[in-house]
Structure formats: C-alpha cells, structure tokens
Amino acid sequence: MKERLQELQQEALSKVEEAVTLADLQEIRVAYMGKKGPITEVLRGMGKLSKEERPVIGELANKVREAIADELDQKKAKLEDAELEKKLAEETIDVTLPGRPVQVGGPHLLTSIVEEIEDLFIGMGFEIREGPEVETDYYNFEALNLPKGHPARDMQDSFYITEDLLLRTHTSPVQARTMGEYNGSQPVKMICPGKVYRRDTDDATHSHQFTQVEGLYVDKDVRMSDLKGVLNRFAKQMFGEEREIRLRPSFFPFTEPSVEMDISCKVCNGNGCSVCKGTGWIEILGGGMVHPRVLEMAGYDPKVYNGFAFGMGPERIAMLKYGVDDIRHFYTNDIRFLKQYHKA
Ligand code: PHE
User: Fold this and answer.
1) What tens digit of pLDDT does each residue of 30-88 get?
2) CA end-to-end span of the chain, whole Å?
3) Distance from the CA of 278 to the center of ligand 1, in angstroms?
4) Does domain 109-340 have CATH number 3.30.930.10?
5) What is the residue extent of each domain of the chain?
6) Which atom of ligand 1 is found nearest the CA of 169?
7) What is the pLDDT of residues 228-255, one digit of tens each?
8) Pair 296, 217: CB distance under 8 Å
9) Cα(34) to centroid of ligand 1, in Å?
C-alpha cells in the first residue's frame, strides 16, 4: 500500500509538471483528489490492515494528498501569472500606429455672418439685444403702429399660436420691448439678431423661417443723415469700400419716412448685369425714421426724442457676399456647402 501511494504521488506530480493550462490542472485535481480517485480507493482498503499499520498508512496518505495539493496550487499560480503576462503583452499599445484624423467642425455661414454684422455695429456703439421668438400680437404688430385689421399686416403672413400669440414675423418687436423697458428714460442704441417666421412657401429666395438683424437708435437729435451714415459704413465694411449706397422711398408702418437701401452691384460695378437685373443696384435692407406713434407707445416723447430703425436679412447679405444662389442651402446642411464656408 505504501508503494502504491508513493507511486500515485509520483504519477500525479509528473502530470502536474506537464500540465500547460488551468483546465489541465483542474482535471488532475479531480482525478487524484476526488472521492472516486485512486487515493480514496487505497484508503478504502485500510480495513484489512493491522492496528499498527493503519495510522502509518493514514498519515502517509494525508502527506501524499498534501504534496499533490501543494504542487497543484503552485502550478496554478504559475500558470495564472503566465496567462496575465501573455494578456499584457498582447494588449500593449503600438504608439507608432498612425492616428485616425478627427473631423473638425466650424461655425455655420449664417452664424459667421451674424457675428460679422454684430461686430460691425458693436464697433459703432450699438449694444446687442434679444427677444422672444414666440411674441404677443401687441409687440409684433400693435406697438409698431399696426393695429388689428391694418392692411399692412398682410405684408407679413403670420403663424398664429393663439389669437394673441404668434411666431414673430420680424425682429422689430425687440425695438418696442427695449424702448418700453427704458420707458423714455434714456437713449437707445441697439441691434437685435434672431430668427423670424412667415407663412411663405419655401423656394430659392423664400423661407418660412429666416434670420433678421434689427437696428434702432433713439436719442434727442437723430437725423436721416445719421441713418445714411451708419448704413453706408455698414455696406462698405461688409461688401467693400468701393460699394455705393442709394436710399429709395418706401413704406413701413413703424417708420416715417421709410426707405429701402440698395448697394451698387459688385458683379458689374453698377453697369447692369443679370445679378442686378440690369439696374446696377441690389436691394439689401429696409429702414426709416421711427414713427412718432411708436416712440409714444413705448414711453418716449416724440417732441423730445426721435430715432432711426432698420432691418436686414443676414441670409440675403451672405447670399450677395458669397454668391449663394438658394436660401435653402442655409437650412439643408449639405456638408459640402457647410465646409465651403468654414473659416480656417
Ligand atoms: N421689420 C421690417 C421687415 O421685416 C424691416 C424694418 C425694420 C423696416 C425696421 C424698417 C425699420 O420687413
């Protein structure tokens, strides 16, 4: 029996030595140490032994077991270490691999042009104001001298939300809001960029949602020549020093007198071409002297204060400046269009 146990130990230890995976070790453990293993088998035959021999063989059997278990544990630790090493080696990062290029975005053309307009007017002392896109009928129309039923409301087809709320059709309500806030207490010099909405059918030059920049200057001695001077500076800075401007009489309910401003066509230099439809001029914005009723409703005494206002569409400005031929390009976000106007 002694020999058999020693033999088993030899056998088990050499198998452990040969084992290459953790699964091999588990197999050996089950085979030798399990209840149905050969050692248990040997112990089962102990009944036949003499009293003296029994404890000796018992002790030996335990030692054999321990020896095998020790060896199994040690080998297990070794294999686990080796496995970890292998994993670490496999996962090393190759820092020499070329990187994947990162796609860098840039501001949308419309964002850039609005910022350019803002910078330009900030340079002339205007502050930036904002107002709500969901506007009351009062600020969008009434406070701008467009009472209910006024035919000029039809100039701006509107999206009404309730009888009293609508998506603003222009940025002019922000004039009325800003003046109303100051309530006649101080001069106002502001521009307001923002989105506006009209019930138009979208085509190359119309969009149901577009952008406007409003301008307003109210003080004690503001003249039409001030309006002309400011707009002339704007036109030259935006489109080039060689551009000329021209004011034509027009009509807006909130300005009197009202004007429309043209710039000389930069394609033909004012000689007439297809872009300016042979006139040599291109219309870019509307404006005028703030109507006394509008001043009055906002708390400004029209005998003391007067002012000018104007409104322009940044899409139109960008289209003219960069030769964009369809307003829908600003909203359909074709990546090729967007990339073309990214500033470096
Ligand atoms: N609000 C006018 C429009 O949308 C533009 C404008 C603004 C005209 C200010 C005069 C003064 O058509």
Assistant:
1) 888 888 888 888 778 888 888 888 888 888 888 888 888 888 888 888 888 888 888 88
2) 89
3) 26
4) yes
5) 2-90, 109-340
6) 4
7) 999 999 999 999 999 999 999 999 999 9
8) no
9) 94
